[in-house]
Amino acid sequence: MTARRQENKGRPIFVSAALLAAVLLHGAWVAAYAAGSERVVSNRLTGLAVEGIDPIAYFADGAPIAGRAEIEATALGVIWRFRSEQNRAVFLAHPDIYAPQFGGYDPVDAARGVIGAGQPRIWLVAGQRLFLFSREDNRDAFVANVNDVLAEARRRWPALKATLADY
Fold first, then answer.
1. Top-confidence residue, 7 or 77
2. 101: which residues sit within 8 A by CB, 6+ positions away?
3. Which residues of 122-134 are buried (b: 16+ CB within 10 A; e: fewer)?
4. What pLDDT is attached to residue 166?
5. Buried b (16+ CB within 10 A) or exposed e, 48-82
6. Are 83 and 52 in contact (CB under 8 A)?
7. How remote is the C-alpha of 84 from its chain's centroid?
8. Which helix (H) or strand (E) holds 129?
């Protein structure tokens, strides 16, 4: 829990009718968006995507670097951590670019027609997109044949995604 959430814990919240209506309308839009977005691999206990690693670090630093608990945001149905406020702002402006493709599931497994959660420490940035892999062998197979693997993974992904449980 971030310090900000801890500070607000236990304080009453007063909501006007107009604000409540705006929140409800926004909630309906978010639900519609979420229904069409990718499900993202996350830790079931913490709710963290990519095990708390700052997704911008893969691009900016070329390495998986842990985000800070006090700098986090919720996007795509999971909690993301960041090393800086700037990284958080960049990610929130373009989660489709910086979030792992296929929701963090292994694209090589997807191309084979199976679901496999990618590991944050087995990764690759290709075509300015982040991919996570379940095994190093899969990353090697991806590098050897990027276009064919991606084409087959994208073809199979909608059916595979439909098998994922809603939590």
1. 77
2. 107, 129, 130, 131
3. bbbeeeebbbbbb
4. 57
5. bbbbbbbbbbbbbeeebeebeeebbbebbbbbbbb
6. no
7. 17
8. strand 129-133
**Cα gap 41→118, rounded to integer Å:** 8
Nearest Cα neighbor of 65 from 45, 33, 87 is 87
Q: What is the DSSP code string of 38-83?
A: PP--B-TTT-BBGGGB-HHHHHHTSS--B-EEEEEEEETTEEEEES
- Give Cα separations from 112 to 144, 150, 151 (angstroms): 15, 11, 11
Q: Is 129 in contact with 119 (CB distance < 8 Å)? A: no
Where residue 164 falls among pLDDT bands split at 50, 70, 90?
confident
For 93-146, what is each residue's pLDDT tens digit?
999 999 999 999 999 999 999 999 999 999 999 999 999 999 999 999 999 999
Q: Tokens 């084979």: give the residue.
A: 112
Q: How many CA atoms lie within 13 A of 60 on its CB side?
A: 15
Cβ-proximal residues to 116 (8 Å cutoff; 6+ apart), any chain: 105, 106, 108, 109, 110, 134, 138
The residue assigned the tokens 């909630």 is 27
Residue 144 CA to residue 93 CA, distance in Å, equals: 32
